[in-house]
Design a protein that fits this description.
The protein has helices at 2-34, 39-50, 56-67, 72-85, 114-122, 137-142, 144-161, 185-188, 197-214, 231-247; strands at residues 172-177, 189-194. By secondary structure, the chain is mainly alpha-helical. This is Reverse transcriptase.
Length: 248
């Protein structure tokens, strides 16, 4: 009987090791495939694999039940007041003091060309969420040849005057739970701002200048501000290492 028990333990360990290797190979294949997809699909698949996919609506309803007696309208106003209060201590900008000299010509390297704007519009993802202007991403992308010239004029004028159009400062703020289920408005909810896509296009052009300026000054271990390196890289490595530890 003792011999049968020992043999059972040996076979059990072999099965467990084989199952762990199969699990590792499965997740490694899944993550390798996810590297070829966009960040939206990457996070969607990652949450599914890790069992973190939740129903956002039910989470917010649960928070409403805990904080506002189930009144979602009151919860929305409470969230809005909290998000606004975060920056209450910051002094307002003095519009009369402008660090830019509007009479000075922009350096040539900081003048945006129509071609640059056209390429930036063409690279806009068609499924990108719209901002408060309700202009779909596909409109900017499909009609880039028509919109590139007027947008370039607005971009360059904004740079010369140091002022961003007020409409491009507006944003739809979406409350996103950091934990599931969220319990506290102050600790468990963070705001996601959806600005107009034209604003994002303008930002992407300026960010290229910033990247060129600080290139070589960022630590190689900083994954957040380097091209083709982000939290996805960190999480992929972390996830695979976790599977390896389970096998070993």
């Amino acid at each position: 009987m003792s011999g049968d028990l020992n043999q059972a333990k040996i076979l059990r360990n072999k099965v467990n090791r084989a199952a762990s290797k199969l699990k590792y190979n499965f997740y490694q294949t899944q993550i390798a495939a996810m590297h070829e997809s966009g960040s939206h699909d990457w996070w969607k698949h990652m949450k599914t694999i890790m069992g973190l996919k939740t129903n956002g609506k039910s989470c917010m309803q649960g928070l409403a039940n805990k904080t506002t007696d189930g009144d979602c309208g009151l919860l929305a106003n409470t969230l809005n007041d909290f998000f606004v209060s975060v920056s209450d201590h910051l002094p307002q900008l003095n519009k009369s003091h402008n660090v830019f000299d509007v009479n000075e010509e922009l350096p040539d390297q900081y003048v945006i060309s129509v071609c640059t704007t056209f390429k930036a519009l063409e690279s806009v993802k068609a499924n990108k969420a719209t901002g408060p202007d309700n202009i779909p991403a596909w409109v900017l992308r499909n009609y880039a040849n028509v919109l590139a010239r007027p947008l370039t004029a607005i971009f360059n004028n904004s740079l010369r005057e140091g002022v961003l159009p007020m409409e491009w400062k507006m944003a739809n703020v979406i409350p996103l739970p950091k934990t599931s289920p969220p319990v506290s408005i102050e600790k468990d909810i963070r705001p996601i701002s959806l600005t107009p896509i034209a604003t994002k296009v303008f930002e992407s052009i300026i960010m290229k200048w910033v990247d060129e300026t600080i290139e070589g000054e960022i630590d190689a271990n900083n994954l957040g501000e380097l091209a083709e390196r982000s939290q996805q890289t960190f999480l992929s490595n972390w996830f695979i290492c976790g599977i390896r530890r389970q096998i070993n």
